[in-house]
Structures are given as structure tokens and as C-alpha cells.
């Protein structure tokens, strides 16, 4: 019976339980099945529920973190991205597959203006360490996620530019 419910849920024929966050993204099945390396990300602190959310998974090295995806792919390195429209209401949980168990760097962005290019003045960003980003480029150490054979659960609080001397920080602090 449980496998039938899972099949219906994956096919979109059965709604998730009321109050439960639906896992979103093209990789959502990996987090629901829990049978392959993946990261399930609960996204908190959205400034609003507009635009798109994007998860990006990089190799966990200083040289590769936040490097252009075309360069990583041309160099034969791993890179994976999941992009979804921001749901109009409710909790947000996203999923991204990893190629194998191991250490990766995860970066989450909220593309509020829907232009598919990070706008420092309007868009938000977050990392698994949930440390204040400030005014500098995020550090690799803030982005590290260890992925097991199954699913790693991570919570990321988004940060937006704010303050008299602008720097990135959570909306609610």
C-alpha cells in the first residue's frame, strides 16, 4: 500500500499531507525515494514568494566553488543545478541529486526578478552554514554539505542586501 501511495505522489495524482512541505524540483523523486545520494533543502527566510529558486551543487574546492557552470563542464568536472518557480505560499523544500556520496558545495539563490542573473540589489542567497554572508563573496566553508548514500537534510536561511552600509543578512534579524 505504501508503494502505491508513493507512486501516486510521484505521479502527481496524490497531494502531500496538509501542512507538509512538498519536495520541489526536477530531482524531487530522489528525495522522496531516498535511494540515491541527494540533498533535501528546506528554504527559510524568503523575502517574498516571487520569481525562481535555484540550487547549485559544485565540487567542494576553492577553485571550483561558484565557478561558471560552462567552465566546470568543459573541464570535465561535476556541476548540477535545479531551478523551480517560487511557490506562491507555504513552506519551500527543494531537492538536488549528487553523483555519488561525498562532499559538495551547495549554493541557493532567490531570483526575485526572474531574469536568471543574480542581481545583488534584489535577489537573495543562502548557504548551508547559515552564517551571515556580509559584503564578501561567500566562503567555500559556508557551503559544504556531506552527502551520504541516501538523502542529506539541510536547512538554508536566505539572506538579502540590507542596511545603511549594505551587506547580506537574513530578513528577520
TrEMBL record:
InterPro entries, sorted: DUF2141 (IPR018673)
Keyword Signal attached: yes
Source organism per UniProt: Sphingomonas mucosissima
A Pfam family of this chain: DUF2141
Taxonomic lineage of the native organism: Bacteria, Pseudomonadati, Pseudomonadota, Alphaproteobacteria, Sphingomonadales
Name the UniProt record assigns to this protein: DUF2141 domain-containing protein
Signal peptide start and end residues: 1-21
Keywords: Signal
